[in-house]
Amino acid sequence: MMKKKVPLRKCILTNEMHPKKDLLRIVVTKEGDVSVDPTGKKNGRGSYVVKNLETVEKARSGKRLEGRLGFDSETLSPVYDEIIRLIYREDIPKR
Questions:
Q1: CATH fold group of domain 8-91
Q2: Which of 9, 13, 38, 74 would be 48's cystine partner, CB 3.0–4.6 Å?
């Protein structure tokens, strides 16, 4: 029996390859809107961020997403908040 291929994506914060399911997708639309896409199906240019709270906090203090995506801190502040909220939501054990 053949093994199923696991899709890998590169995290824009760490430059490391991870399985796609271990990452969150950030989408920039044609209109210039930025949002977090937990489903991975929204239209637009997607970038991936690892689901690691320490990495995201370091990126926020070092303004790494701002440099990678070309937006200001004011625009990306809600995006950071949404990423952190989704990371905490994943950590809750499912019943």
A1: Hypothetical Cytosolic Protein; Chain: A; (3.30.1230)
A2: 9
pLDDT tens, residue by residue, 25-46: 999 999 999 999 988 899 999 9
What are the structure tokens assigned to 65, written together? 């997403």
Q: How far apart are CA 33 and CA 44, in angstroms?
A: 9
Alpha carbon distances (Å) from 92 to 5, 25, 62, 64, 71: 28, 20, 28, 27, 31
The answer to whether the CB of 26 falls within 8 A of the CB of 79 is: yes
Task: Identify any residues that bridge with 9 across adjacent strands, giving them in sequence order.
Answer: 18
